[in-house]
């Protein structure tokens, strides 16, 4: 009970700053800020291990929910040995459209303890897309589930399902997600979105630029540190925490930003989210574009590189 995981750290916070913040509570045995292996960018979380269990408990009571810059950090006990729990997230496709989340959990629960599960639904019709995610407590449980269920037909299903690790989808999956994104017959927004936007002169040109990608004209742009997603039609009182809550479940989010009016500090109706993994970003867009937030329907797309200007 001495090892803590700290989530939602500000992007620019260093390991030294993390250590000094938590060192103010008690003696630290080790402290590690987790960074992207390739870019060296902070992934927004870290581990702090105290010498004394009472200091770890005190750190949770004192620092959990602390606001740092635009983030509210979350401090909790870390689960044991990360190797045994790493990459225990499964991607399941070919599910019967009638299958509920509860039935999905029942099917997989024979293999181990399920941490989270989700079935993706079409935001327009509410119908299941036949795709889901299951996160097990341990990697070995996920491996057993793949062995037991991949290529099998669940009860009431006519087709076999595909079960594989979610963090390494094949090229084929990418293509499927992309075609789903850009050629979906029930797209809610017709192509001339950019023209519609031009009618409202109060939108800055950047907004119009970002919107053209919804028409499928522009394949997404990769920002140096990840994939940048453009979120449009947010309410004036929207803040960063809403974006964290919406995109967090899909995968690693490194940064969120709500664009605010300089004078009123109210949201100008749009924001940006950066995610490290392409497939997770594509999945978030497929699921959240057309999502109803309050009385507004969100438009979500990859931020385009402004090459067509």
Helix content: 25-40%
Q: What is the overall number of helices?
A: 10
Helix and strand content put the structural class at alpha+beta
For the residues shown, what is the average pLDDT?
76
Give the CA-CA distance, first to last residue. 56 Å
H/E order of the elements?
EHEEHEEEHEHEEHEHHHEEHEEHEEE
Per DSSP, what share of the residues sits in E-state strands of 2 or more residues?
25-35%
- CATH-defined fold name of the largest domain: Alpha-Beta Plaits
CATH superfamily membership of the largest domain, which one?
A: RRM (RNA recognition motif) domain
Record field, number of beta strands: 17
CATH architecture heading of the largest domain: 2-Layer Sandwich
Q: Low-confidence spans: pLDDT under 50, at least 5 residues? A: 168-223
Largest sheet: 5 strands, antiparallel
CATH class of the largest domain: Alpha Beta
Whole-angstrom Rg: 21 Å
- Structural domain tally: 3
Q: Tell me, what's the shape?
A: globular
Keywords: Repeat, RNA-binding
Domain RRM: 2-80, 88-168, 227-305
Protein name: ELAV-like protein
Family: Belongs to the RRM elav family.
């Amino acid at each position: 009970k001495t090892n803590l995981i700290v989530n939602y750290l500000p992007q620019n916070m260093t390991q030294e700053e993390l250590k000094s913040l938590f060192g103010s509570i008690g003696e630290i045995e080790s402290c590690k800020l987790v960074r992207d292996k390739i870019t060296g960018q902070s992934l927004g979380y870290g581990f702090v291990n105290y010498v004394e269990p009472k200091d770890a408990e005190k750190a949770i009571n004192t620092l959990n929910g602390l606001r740092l810059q635009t983030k509210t950090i979350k401090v909790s006990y870390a689960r044991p040995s990360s190797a045994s729990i790493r990459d225990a997230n499964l991607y399941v496709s070919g599910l019967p459209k009638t299958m509920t989340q509860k039935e999905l959990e029942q099917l997989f629960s024979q293999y181990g303890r399920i941490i989270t599960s989700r079935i993706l639904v079409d935001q327009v019709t509410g119908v299941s897309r036949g795709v889901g995610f299951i996160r097990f407590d341990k990697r070995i449980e996920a491996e057993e589930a793949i062995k037991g269920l991949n290529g099998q037909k669940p009860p009431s299903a006519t087709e076999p399902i595909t079960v594989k690790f979610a963090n390494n989808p094949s090229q084929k999956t990418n293509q499927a997600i992309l075609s789903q994104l850009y050629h979906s017959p029930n797209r809610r927004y017709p192509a001339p979105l950019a023209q519609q936007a031009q009618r409202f002169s109060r939108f800055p040109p950047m907004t119009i630029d970002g919107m053209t990608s919804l028409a499928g004209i522009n394949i997404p742009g990769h920002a140096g540190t990840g994939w940048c997603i453009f979120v449009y039609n947010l309410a004036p009182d929207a803040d960063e925490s809403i974006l964290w809550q919406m995109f967090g479940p899909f995968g690693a989010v490194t940064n969120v930003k709500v664009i605010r009016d300089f004078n009123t500090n109210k949201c100008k109706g749009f924001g940006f989210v950066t995610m490290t993994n392409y497939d997770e970003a594509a999945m978030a867009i497929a699921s959240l574009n057309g999502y109803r937030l309050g009385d507004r329907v969100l438009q979500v797309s990859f931020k385009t590189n402004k090459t067509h200007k």
